[in-house]
């Protein structure tokens, strides 16, 4: 099922279908390895509900839900 | 022959350790021209050749969006070091190689130092190094900088590459992108190369023009035909790949890396268990326990720094400077028959002035030591992760949290800690807001006035002032974000490095790197300021030394500016002079009050001083005075730190002007509002 990354829950394993948005934030996310085809494991949500932490390409990355909503993903397993 | 090697790598790849290991103690630290990004240089030790090593900022990419990335790529393109040593964290190889794919396009020989091999081996993973070398087309040297493994081989190999390059041998080129893109790049490159001159290597320029990099585009003179050709190529590729060009290129780089990694890296099959780091993280960022734990950690750090150990070091140095040293110098000067004014200048001016700053040095070092532990262990980035939500409300990101919390201790290290913020706008705003956090030096002022006027509610009053500082910081953040610092709030994309046990050597280096700046820079400014303030307190306008401060330049200025404070409820000259001397150090307000009430040197617990203050202050006036003390321009040491970090007089003056104006307005509201409510 295709959805956006901000809809995922901790523990979800997903694969990136497309990175939307534009500008420096998008470029930064891609520089950090958020690109098409990469697998993401959603680790957790911060205690106050935002941002989120994910594991990508073997390391931990955090960014905000608003930016996660630009990342289209396909769920692999829960 | 002299060589220059540039160290480039991601943050947290062990670059600093490598630099320290290679250069030993020969390094010197400065700033890049025009910006406050650190520039470190040193000579490679244990080599007879003259090798200079330059440590470039830790970066993830060479995009045109971040200052540090622009500095790094400009350095490589303009200064053309002989070799770029790219430090790659072997345990995080995929993302680290992304920068590598950009570095090899810069037309300068690259050597990869595959660092943290010890950690990789401990994990049970393996990397086929000859294979990796072949795929990347550059030499790869395994290293573990923290154990000094492989660093000698690294420099030897780099030297070899530099010598080969000098004799005209070039590295083989590799194919990074899909054929379609490589072909387009080749075609465009033919058109672009004649326009370049010496400025950019053709491959780099072609990729950047295609991506639409604004800096590169502006620097190359292009004819109409070329602009058209670039546009056509971009349109065609964007349509084919159904994405924008920057995305396509980034995608391609990572696809290349995935191929490389799948062939040369053998990962031990994970058994699905959690690492120690994961387990610690489960507790430290737990949904419920995280924030209480965080508060507890901060509490412990502050109690130790500002509690007994800190107080002990302050008293000790204070005694050393103001009693032992001052007495010795006075005796010496007397026996040498020196003039009274010279004694007054050296003891009352310089020793007292420098002493007031030096007493804070051990405390600041202790604070930096703890912050180094929090940072090197990886906890600091988790704190930013937890606090981001709150800080976004005032237009900042979680990264601003660290400087602000440090501000409760002392504004100076807090302002220096803004260096971790990437975005210039965020940095400036954080610097402006940080001094509103009530620092330790303001506490004696509150203690005096609270005891004199709010005997039954002292803690409550003091607590309300800390809170008021935070509220003013929040409101100021919102206000400034909507006016001067308009625009998108800084994004929050941050790596959370694995928890590591910090090494003692690393902590000391970290602490010293930051602390010495405080001693050196603040020292020079404070030396000059002490002389000026001594002069203002000692001489009158006809340049005669007087005994009464009321007749001195400061006394006259105090009398002159006191009407400025009248609407705030404390328009008498003594309060004005006290606030003036508070610019040297905020706690000086108490000492000055003592002197001006003819009580000599007294502490904040003096009953006589309280009685004296009660004759011309009311509780409301006292609260307004404390409010002003809380918010007005910070002490000279903080001022020097602001100037240093803002790197601009305009911004420095704006900061202190804004703070003082805010102090005036808020005190006015407190006093006049209080009067309207019938409190005064």
TrEMBL record, chain A:
Signal peptide bounds: none
Single GO term (MF): transition metal ion binding
Annotated Ferrous iron transporter FeoA-like domain residues: 3-75
Pfam families recorded: FeoA
Keywords linked to the UniProt accession: Iron
InterPro entries: Fe-transptr_FeoA-like, FeoA, FeoA_core_dom, Transcriptional_repressor_C
Protein name: Iron transporter FeoA
Species whose genome carries this gene: Paenibacillus antarcticus
From TrEMBL, chain B:
Binding site for GTP: 9-16, 34-38, 55-58, 115-118
Superkingdom, taxonomy of origin: Bacteria
An MF annotation (GO) of this entry: metal ion binding
Classification via InterPro entries: Fe2_transport_prot-B, Fe2_transport_prot_B_C, FeoB_Cyto, FeoB_GTPase, G_FEOB_dom, Gate_dom, P-loop_NTPase
First-listed, main subcellular location of the protein, grouped into a coarse class: membrane
Membrane topology: Multi-pass membrane protein
FeoB-type G domain boundaries: 2-164
Compartment annotation: Cell inner membrane; Cell membrane
Pfam families, A to Z: FeoB_C, FeoB_Cyto, FeoB_N, Gate
Residues that span the membrane, as ranges: 288-310, 345-374, 394-417, 429-454, 460-480, 518-537, 549-570, 620-642, 651-671
Keywords per UniProt: Cell inner membrane, Cell membrane, GTP-binding, Ion transport, Iron, Iron transport, Magnesium, Membrane, Metal-binding, Nucleotide-binding, Transmembrane, Transmembrane helix, Transport
Gene Ontology cellular-component terms listed: plasma membrane
Residue sites binding Mg(2+) per the record: 20, 23-24
CDD domains reported in the protein's UniProt record: FeoB (cd01879)
Family label: Belongs to the TRAFAC class TrmE-Era-EngA-EngB-Septin-like GTPase superfamily. FeoB GTPase (TC 9.A.8) family.
Its biological purpose: Probable transporter of a GTP-driven Fe(2+) uptake system.
Name recorded for this polypeptide: Ferrous iron transport protein B
Organism: Paenibacillus antarcticus
